[in-house]
Amino acid sequence: PVVDHSGSLMGIVTLQDIRKLKATGGDESSVTVADIMSRDIGQIGEHESALEAFQRISHTPSGRLLVTDPRGSLRGIISKTDLIRAVQVRMVGMDLDEMADFDPVRQ
User: Fold this and answer.
1) Where are the extended beta strands (E) located within the chain?
2) 64: which strand partners?
3) Can you tell me the distance from the alpha carbon of 17 to that of 36, in angstroms, rounded to the nearest whole number?
4) CA 15 to CA 104: how far, in whole Å?
5) Lower CB density within 10 Å: C or N end of the chain?
6) Burial class of residue 77, CB neighbours in 10 A (0-12, 13-18, 19+)
7) Three-class DSSP labels, 2-62
8) What value, to the nearest 5°, has the Cα angle with vertex 28 and ends 27 and 32?
């Protein structure tokens, strides 16, 4: 993630951003992070449900969401893979009633 001096989120640099830069054949030594970062980034509050995270992440090109606290400060990054792994780990040994109430983000 890219933040400004006050800690506000400005963007994120992804592997896709770097690949686009390399594909253009430009002078990589003169390019700044601000030049290549993705500014349209998905965010989610740290207390949102896993279902909400799955819904939002499906609309993000990077397949990641920046996780923020109630003040908007960055707490972490979650990916589609993280969500799937959390569900797999938590569902081992659960019965159907437990699965209906399951929320891996809050576990």
Assistant:
1) 2-3, 9-11, 42-45, 64-68, 74-79
2) 79
3) 6
4) 27
5) C
6) middle
7) EECCCCCEEEECCHHHHHHHHHHCCCHHHCCHHHHCECCCEEEECCCCHHHHHHHHCCCCC
8) 115
The whole-model pTM stands at: 0.64
Tens of pLDDT, residues 3-42? 888 877 788 888 888 888 888 887 778 888 888 888 878 8
* All residues at 6 or more sequence positions from 40 whose CB lies less than 8 Å from its CB, including other chains: 61
3-state helix, strand, coil in the chain (%, to 5): 40, 20, 40
Q: Among all chains, which residue has been given the structure tokens 């606290």?
A: 69
Terminal alpha carbon distance of the chain: 25
